[in-house]
Amino acid sequence: MSDTINFNNTEIAFGTRTKKELLRAKFLFGMLEYGWLTRMAKPLLNIAFKSRLPIDPIIKKTIFSQFCGGENLMECKARIDALYNGGEIMSILDYSVEGAETEESFDQTLETLLNICQFSEFQKQVPFLVFKPSGLGNLELFQKVSEGYPLDTKEMEKWDKVRNRFEKICQSVAKTDNLKIMVDAEESWCHAAIDGLAEEMMVKYNTQRTVVFTTVQLYLSKKYDYLKWLKRLAEQHHIKIGVKLVRGAYMEKERDRALEYGYESPVCEDKASTDQNFNNGVSYVLENLDVFDLFLGTHNELSCLQLVKKLKERGISNSDTRIWFGQLYGMSDNISYNLAEQGYNVTKYVPFGPVRDVMPYLIRRAEENSSVGSQSSREMELIKKELLRRKYPK
């Protein structure tokens, strides 16, 4: 085992990928580099679905297969086993059906999460569950609670149901020996309500071990101070705090809304200040590992290398169970496999769900990849390098 990590090592990164899989990925990431093509895809797919065109098999063999584990848990089993057996990469099963709007659909999402919990309990390669709060309740309700508006009787009943859904899934995970659960991110105007529920669950279930993780989006300038607040919460209640640190995914939406409603944008001024806020957040958590468990959710190679360096400087073992790295399935294999090869705890988010129901997630992922500074060009560079290496091995 080497003391250094080389994220350009494509032999390790793509050791489990066949040539056919690499060529498919090369084609897909090549398409994602054309932003106009991604923008056209969404309305065209909607037309195709409404016209009942039989395009599901094509989608499943291409973009779905690249970024998703399957349509159901049993289809995911082969993918999560391959990740673990091929490089000891752990998996986070992510039910990625978006757009739930009715109480029935929220209950169905909860039922799916409980099934994932039951499925994962004895799967050593699945250490985490994850859910988006908007899967368990209406975002407008989260916003209203966050902004302190009074709820009418019907809204109070719905909010009680949201809290009960949070409670049921967190309680089920807490009853297992090792599973943990992450509350995923939403837009900042919903954070007060979401953070409040996550804090309530941590106070209740993080007494013996770190069960519940909350997501902290550090492209929001005030989130560094929120980490300090979480530390005080932990000390007050004698609990552990799980945090997933990310930069964030709603930058343009946040700025546009602030401009529209005339308030100060909560987003950091520029990329440099965002990176500084992120780095400060990572350092703060590492300085307080008696309180925090850290999940670093990033595709930024420099951020991963900086965390590796900080762990070495502090004499923290590569396999310390308080430290986790995470990337999305189908992306950044050069980070995931090279970190895992050095003994770090690495996970892949493995989205799943029926093809048509997962399409909003896939479109959103495609839009993020085709944006400025996206991952696509880096993925293309690495895939081409590996194909060339296989053609002309040393």
Please report the first level of CATH classification, the CATH class of the domain at 131-297: Alpha Beta
Number of helices: 16
* Architecture per CATH nomenclature, i.e. the level-2 architecture of the domain at 131-297: Alpha-Beta Barrel
Query: For the report, how would you describe the main beta sheet?
Result: 8 strands, parallel, barrel
Class of secondary structure makeup: alpha/beta
Tell me the β content.
5-15%
The Rg value, from CA coordinates, equals 21 Å
- Stated plainly, the CATH topology of the domain at 131-297 is called TIM Barrel
What does this entry look like structurally?
The structure is a single chain. The chain is α/β, with parallel strands linked by helices. The chain has a domain at 131-297: TIM Barrel, CATH 3.20.20. Helix content is 56%, strand content 11%. It has helices spanning 10-13, 19-32, 35-50, 56-67, 73-87, 103-120, 139-146, 153-174, 191-205, 223-237, 251-261, 271-287, 301-313, 333-341, 355-369, 376-391, and strands at residues 90-95, 128-131, 180-183, 212-217, 241-246, 292-297, 323-328, 346-352. It has an eight-stranded parallel beta barrel with strand order 1-2-3-4-5-6-7-8, surrounded by seven helices. Helix 10 runs parallel beside helix 12. The longest helix is centred in the middle third of the chain and has 22 residues, at 153-174. It is globular, with a radius of gyration of 21 Å. The relative contact order is 0.16. The mean pLDDT is 91. This is Proline dehydrogenase. Residues 78-377 form the Proline dehydrogenase domain. Keywords: Oxidoreductase. InterPro entries: FAD-linked_oxidoreductase-like, Proline_DH_dom, Proline_oxidase. It comes from Flagellimonas hadalis.
